[in-house]
Every structure is written in C-alpha cells, then in structure tokens.
Amino acid sequence: MPIPFPFSAVVAQEEMKRSLLMAAIDPSIGGVLVFGDRGTGKSTAIRGLAALLPKMRAVDCTYNCDPEAGDDYLCQECRTKKAEKGSLKSRQVPVPVVDLPLGATEDRVIGALDLERALTKGEKAFEPGLLARAHRGFLYIDEVNLLEDHLVDSLLDVAASGQNLVEREGLSVRHPARFVLVGSGNPEEGELRPQLQDRFGLSVEVKTPTDLPTRMKVVRLRDEFERDPEAFVEKWKAKDAKVSRQIQKAKKLLPEVEVPDRTLEETAKLCIKLGTDGLRGELTVIRSARALAALQGDKTVTVDHVKTIAVSALRHRLRRDPLDESGSTSRVERAIKELFGE
Amino acid sequence: MSTPGPNPAVADGGTPAPLQAGPGHSPWDDAVLAAVLMTIDPVGTGGVALRALPGPVRDQWLSIMRDLQPEGTPMRRIPLHVADGRLLGGLDLAATLNAGRPVAEKGLLVEADGGVVELAMAERIAPGTAARLNMAFDSGEVVLERDGLAMRTPSRFAVVALDEGVGEDEGLLNALLDRLAFHLELNYVRYDQAIACNYDVEDVLAARPRLPGVTITDTQVETLCNIALALGIPSLRASIFASRVACAHAALEERTEVTDEDLAVAGRLVLAPRATQLPPMEPPPDAEPPPPEPEEPNQDEEQSNQEPQEPQELQDKILDATKAAIPAGLLAQLQMGKLRRSRARATGKAGAVQNAPSRGRPAGVLRGEPRAGQRLNVIETLRSAAPWQRIRREERARAGKPSNRLEIRQDDFRITRFKHKSESTTIFVVDASGSSALHRLAEAKGAVELLLADCYVRRDQVALVAFRGQGAEVLLPPTRSLVRAKRSLAGLPGGGGTPLASGIDLGMMLADGVQRRGGTPVLIVMTDGRANVARDGTGGRTRANEEALAAARAVRSLEIPALVIDTSPRPQPQGRELAKEMGAVYLPLPHADANALNQAVRATAG
C-alpha cells in the first residue's frame, strides 16, 4: 500500500483540516464534504488523517461492534453473545478509513453472497461490503459527485438509518453501519445531488493558494515526499503524533463541554436570519462548535466558536437564490457580521 | 521563429493555434523532448496530453515514444469504451467456472503498472472513466471493489492521452489535463519536420538513476512558482510538475544540480501551454521580498554553495523563454482581452465532453428484468448465476429432480444500463439588446440556474446563447455544472441592436450538435421579436426581420422543439409570427420572474 502523505505536512487549507479533525472528534456532526479546485490536497489530507486517528475499542466480530453500544447497534452475533454472557470482550483496533472507489459495484458496497464459499462449499453466506467495513469509522468517496446514482441511493438510506439492510440473492441480513461520510470533488465536473449534500455535516470549499510562499512550500514538500516517502514520513512523525494526541484529548473532553443558553440563542438567531431549512443546520452548528471547543481545550462553547465554524456548517444548507450574485459563503459571512459585529 | 507575435488569422477563427516554440526550439523537438522526460520520470510527470489528429506525425511521435521505453516496460492501449471490469479488474468468469472458486482478472491499469497507458480518443472519454484513472494517479494503486472481490494493487503509470479534438469546444477533461505535465500540440507540425530524435533508450536508462540525486534550490522553485502565478496558472500541480521536469532534464543532461537551462525547458514544456494570461509588465509586488524560510522541518539547502543568481533576473530570463513558447493564437487572444475564451481553451471543456456520444454507451450493469427495451446482459447474468450452480443443483437433487443444466433464476438477471439515453439540452437564446436587456438577462440567468439546480435529477444540460449589437455568442456551452454556469453568467453584457437571426442561427447550430450526438435539444428563444440587425451586422429592420423568419423556418425544418417567450411589455405580433415560423410554442410573458420562466421551460421540455 502506498505511503500516505502526512496530515500535518499538508500546507494551508486550515478550514479543511479543522473540519476533518472535528468530524473525527464527534462523528455525530455528520461528516465533511470537501469541494474545490484541483490539486489542493483534498484527498491527500483525508488519506493522511487515517494514519493518525487514535485507536478504538471493538468487539472481535465482523463489524467491529462497540462493546458499549446498545442492542440496536450490535450485530446479530454480538447481540446473541451479549444475551448469553452479559458482556462482550473487546480489544483496541485502528479506526477504519474505507475508500469507496468509483466503479465499485453494488455487491461490494452493501455486501452480498460470499462467492468463495458459494463456489467451493456450496454454502449460502453473507460477505459484508464496504459499509460494514466502515462501521464506526470513515467512509471516503473521492469524486463524490461522479458516484453512480444507485450507489448514492443505498448510501443515503444507510447513512440515515445507521443500519444496512441487505435483501438480495436470497439473503436477508441486517447489520449496524454508522460511519463518518467524507466526500471530495470538483464542482466543475458536476453537481452533487442535494439529498446527498445535505447528509454532510460540514462542507468546505478549498481554493488553490495564491500567495507565493505557500505555493512554494507545497511544491517543496511534495517534491521531498516523492523523492523519499519513508524519510519524509519519519520527519513528520512527531507532528502527526501531536495531532493524534490532540484528537484523543478532545474526544475525552467532549462530554464535559457545555453549551450555555446564550450560545444556543445566538445560533438560533443566525439560522433564522439565514432561513436554513429545519433544525439540522442548528444542530450541526452546535455540535461542531462543541467539537471545536474540545479541540481547543475549552470547556464552554462561546459565540466565537460558533462564528468560526458557522460557514462550514451552514453554507451548503442555504436555499439557492439564483439572483443573489454572492455565493452562499459570503451570505453566511454577511449574516455573522450583521449579527455579531466584527 | 524568433518572435511569435499575434496571429490574428488564427486567433479569430477559433481554430487551435499552432504550437510555437522558443527561439531555436521547434515544436517537434520539444515534443520529442517531452517524450524523453516523461519516460525518465513517468510517475513524477504523469504523462502527455497529445493534441493531434491521427496521421503520420502522430504515429511518428508515438513510435519514438515507444522506442524510448526500456525493455519490458508494459504498454497498454485503453479504448474509449473500456468497461470498468476491464479497466479496474473483476471476476474472470471463465476461469471462475473452471476452477470452482473466484478467480480475479487483472485490469488494464494494473497491467500497465510501471509503464505507459495510451488513451485512445481521450477527448471523448467518459467522466467516470477519467475519474477512475485519476484515482489511480493520485493514490498510486487501483482499489477494486467489484464482483465480490476487494483488492488493492499498486499501479503507477504515465498516460499518453491522444486528444483528437477539433476546435476549442473539444478537448481533454480538466481533471485529466491537470494531472499530465506535458500538453503538446502536433497538428501544425509538418511530416517532413517530424523525423529527428536525438535520444534513445540508453539516454533514458542513464538518466533514471541520476534523477533522485538532482537538487533544485529554493530560488529555482520560487522562480517556477512565480512564473506560474504571472501566467495565471492556478493549479499547483503545474508548479510541481515544472520542478519535476526541470530535475528530469538535469538528469538527462548529466547534471546533479538544476540549471537555468533546465528551468527554461520546464517553463516552455509545462507552464507555457497552461498560460491563461500574459504576465504583468511590472513584477508583482509580493514577488520582490525573498520568501520566508519554511518554518517546518528545516531543509538543508546550504549544500548548494553556488552564487545564487538574483531571483528577479533569473525569473525574467525564464519568463521570457516561457512566454516565447505560449501558442501565438493564445497570445493574440490574451492581447485582445478575450480572456473568457482563452480560459475555456486553456482549461479544457468538461461540459462539452460530458455531452459526448449519448446513445448506446453502456454505463454499468444493474439487477433487473429485461423489459421495456432494457437489454439483458448475458455475460453479467451468467456471472451472477455462476456461484449458485452448486447450491441450486443440490437443492434440485434434494427435491428429487436432479439435472445438469445451468440454473438461472430471476434474481440473476442483469441488464445493461445506458447513460444519457434521453438526455435533453435546454438552449436559451436570449435577446440582450436594448434598454430592457439587463432586466431580461437577470431573468434568464435565474431560469438557467433554477434549471441547473434540478438538472441533476433531470439529467439535463443547459446552454446559453446571447445576441446583441452585431452578432451572437455562446456564453455557456452545454453544461451541467452550476459553477461553470454561474461563472459565465456573471459577466453577461447587455445593450445594442437586435441581431435576432444570428441568435437563432447560433442556437440552432448548438441544437443541431446536440441532436447529432443523440441528445434532445430544446430551444428557448427570449425576445420581443423586433429584429433590427441583419446577419452581416448591418442595420435595417426589414431585412433583419426577413432573415430572422428564415432562421426560424430552418429551426422548424430540423424539427427542434422550441419555445418563444415574448418579453415585450405588451405582446407583439412579431413574436407570435416568429413562433409560428419556428413551429414553436408561443408564450407572452411580460412580467416573468425566474420561477415562472422555469416552469414554462419545464413544461416545454417535458
């Protein structure tokens, strides 16, 4: 497997890196959509993140079940075991980061008959797919706007229910599938289906840096990496480890972070002003502000936290106004300025 | 060929400009040099976008490129209609049935690992296929999740994309173009020029081991980055490629340090063809101070003790060399301020290519029954039935009806899905003339964007033609991308006379193109019908009107579905007459808002 470029060596693109970290700290934020220019390190950052995620506790079953999870979120096997023994044995495993490559077929995504066993033993067995592998981890789709429609459909259903229900080839299987969806793409190659866009908690727009020092640094580091990936990764190991510890600390702190009424109120005001649909926007703002507070080691969510993440949490939730020349990013920024001042 | 000045004859016609090379460098020599450098560092350079019609010149280049590959280098040619299974790999049906266990079949990309992939008719490649290629590029491996198989296989290769596009509307997808260091154009190289190649495989073999040892200084990287900025090249890949190419050239020339000559080659081969603007006369102010030392892990650059050249002076020198290599046509367009056009050319045409052959291109296989015109995919059906044979026969035997025939059940049926089967393209032809233009344009913009907003679901494309003053122009070629649409709509100008006939003509040409490619065009003409400029750009109400009606009749004869929206404050007979001649639906909409317009269009388009 090729060596991934270290996450901490990705130059600039602070919003993208921060959003990915927040999604790692609180999976319930609902994932990250990274849209923007070519060659800005979208996939690089996401693949780099995988290398530094702290490990998690998991039951030794096909689905990496969470030993602490309620019955609804255990697989059949674990449910039976738990009923018999009262508890489940677990071990530390790496958080899965699963690629959903374009050109994947449906059977590999949702799972299907195990070919090997069917062919060699004549048995009918279920072979879990990518959604099962991504359970409790990340599902990464590069060029998400080019994903085939029927795959998007299965994905939407599973992402909403946290369960994957397979009914095909005479099999009937249900298993937990909760994952952080991370997608990247270039809007010039096609739009993203609105339903799918809405699934993402945060959306980030990446642009090519235009200042010379940043551009030089990107070229430099990339060149160095290509020449000797192993040495390069070794050189950045300490920085990556630091980020990894930061995630770990933030995850621990997260349950203690409080959201004062005033922050809630200001968030509601912002969402009303922007006319975002439903409560999903508000919820995402609060959750990500909390994750940001945890990331920064703060125990209270302030309006400043909200201001920092509001654009990422709301820009893809605004209703389209064709006659408004300014993009949704500047609409959110404008609203923040009007509400909270400079 | 020392001063490649503007060449208006070429620039005006929209035909691709001939490739100009710097002083002393013929386009052919540069094309050969690109082949050598690509072969020295296939992974670092990504490969070559070769714009050329098939013919002896292209064949000559390809055979030189092939001869440069060291023995044992895998070479694979990927046809336009390659199936995912062949490209990425999948289940080998015959072997699987034979062996009684799943046998994987290698895909073309895996077979090409360490070698070169030739992409046939790359300008028409499906965006999906390009995306799979790009993923392999980016990750250096093929990730396979198909037919019950999951595999990751290393796959690093260079691509030679054979772009047979004609005119500026056809070309490689941006995403692919961005990942290839060299963009060559051979259309203007005469056959008798295309002979020499001063390099052979020995040069490649000697240069490869030298490459890792070649050093490039911060100043030199700065120079390349600065030139990229000055030429308006946004993608960072260009700068990265330029530095890789400089190193590869140094290795070829038996150097261990990059020199000005190497930088000049990189500028000429990598940066010049990507230029979207002319460098400003004055150097940008932020280019003057030396860049701050990167704070992150210190790179030990001290070893290069040579007296560093003044960055500015060096940059000017390379920039001049690079500028000389910018295609003359582009240079002329840039000077005439036609930035929009040139940018479209310089960045390829994603929309146009998505619009490529629509009928009958298989786009994957789905479970389902063959009915209502769906075609059964026999191989895929067999493939899905294969694993079950043993179980089913045993079941049959248990039921007391043993048999040896192949057991196919309804569950196994696979049908081939065709993409863009009934894709429609809505072409707006908008009257941008006169005083009401700005108001009308805003509505047209709104309608286009609303249509685009739900076109993901409708699988539609939208195009926009505007006419005003002396003639008409395509503001937005057929596209599905809202981002692109917004960008071209942002600069929509208004005012001037009403060359209605030219507008209809151009709209019709677009519509005809869509029809030829198997799509369904819908023409929406928004005007008050009062033409006053004829096709040749001269004034005169009577002639302008006659021509407009003639153009309308042509639309009817091509059987293009059309809608005429009369935008005058009070509906006029001219509008109605125009609609009649066009065989179009007539819709007076004096106070239309974007929404009403959108609904009307959707009703027409069905």
Automatic annotation (TrEMBL), chain A:
Pathway connected to this protein:
Porphyrin-containing compound metabolism; bacteriochlorophyll biosynthesis
Keyword Ligase listed? yes
Choose any GO biological process term that the UniProt entry carries and state it: bacteriochlorophyll biosynthetic process
The record's annotation in InterPro entries points to: AAA+_ATPase (IPR003593), CHLI-like (IPR045006), ChlI/MoxR_AAA_lid (IPR041628), Mg_chelatase_ATPase-isu (IPR011775), Mg_chelatse_chII-like_cat_dom (IPR000523), P-loop_NTPase (IPR027417)
The enzyme's E.C. designation: 6.6.1.1
Record key words, sorted: ATP-binding, Bacteriochlorophyll biosynthesis, Chlorophyll biosynthesis, Ligase, Nucleotide-binding, Photosynthesis
- Coiled-coil blocks: none
Q: Which GO terms describe its molecular function?
A: ATP binding; magnesium chelatase activity
What SUPFAM superfamilies does the annotation carry? P-loop containing nucleoside triphosphate hydrolases
One Pfam family this sequence matches: Mg_chelatase
Domain annotation AAA+ ATPase: ranges: 28-210
Task: Name the catalysed reactions.
Answer: protoporphyrin IX + Mg(2+) + ATP + H2O = Mg-protoporphyrin IX + ADP + phosphate + 3 H(+)
Q: Which Gene3D superfamilies match?
A: Magnesium chelatase subunit I, C-Terminal domain, P-loop containing nucleotide triphosphate hydrolases
Per the entry, what this protein does is:
Involved in bacteriochlorophyll biosynthesis; introduces a magnesium ion into protoporphyrin IX to yield Mg-protoporphyrin IX.
The record's family statement is: Belongs to the Mg-chelatase subunits D/I family.
Protein's name in the database: Mg-protoporphyrin IX chelatase
**Provenance organism:** Allochromatium vinosum (strain ATCC 17899 / DSM 180 / NBRC 103801 / NCIMB 10441 / D)
TrEMBL record, chain B:
Segments forming domain VWFA: 425-604
Q: What is its EC number?
A: 6.6.1.1
Say if the entry is tagged with keyword ATP-binding.
yes
Q: Which GO terms describe its molecular function?
A: ATP binding; magnesium chelatase activity
PROSITE patterns in the cross-refs: VWFA (PS50234)
Q: In what ranges is there compositional bias, type Pro residues?
A: 280-292
GO BP annotations, alphabetical order: bacteriochlorophyll biosynthetic process; photosynthesis
InterPro entries given in the database record: BchD/ChlD_VWA, ChlI/MoxR_AAA_lid, Mg_chelatase_ATPase-dsu, P-loop_NTPase, VWF_A, vWFA_dom_sf
Q: Where is the composition biased (Acidic residues)?
A: 293-304
Tell me which UniProt keywords the record has, alphabetically.
Answer: ATP-binding, Bacteriochlorophyll biosynthesis, Chlorophyll biosynthesis, Ligase, Nucleotide-binding, Photosynthesis
List the catalysed reactions: protoporphyrin IX + Mg(2+) + ATP + H2O = Mg-protoporphyrin IX + ADP + phosphate + 3 H(+)
Specify where the region named Disordered lies, as residue ranges: 1-25, 273-312, 341-368
Q: In which pathway does it act?
A: Porphyrin-containing compound metabolism; bacteriochlorophyll biosynthesis
Lineage top rank: taxon: Bacteria
Q: Which CDD domains match?
A: vWA_Magnesium_chelatase
Give the function comment from the record. Answer: Involved in bacteriochlorophyll biosynthesis; introduces a magnesium ion into protoporphyrin IX to yield Mg-protoporphyrin IX.
Q: Which family does it belong to?
A: Belongs to the Mg-chelatase subunits D/I family.
| Entries under PANTHER family matching the protein | MAGNESIUM-CHELATASE SUBUNIT CHLD, CHLOROPLASTIC
Name by which UniProt lists this protein: Mg-protoporphyrin IX chelatase
Q: Which organism is it from?
A: Allochromatium vinosum (strain ATCC 17899 / DSM 180 / NBRC 103801 / NCIMB 10441 / D) (Chromatium vinosum)
What lineage, starting at the top, does this entry show? Answer: Bacteria, Pseudomonadati, Pseudomonadota, Gammaproteobacteria, Chromatiales
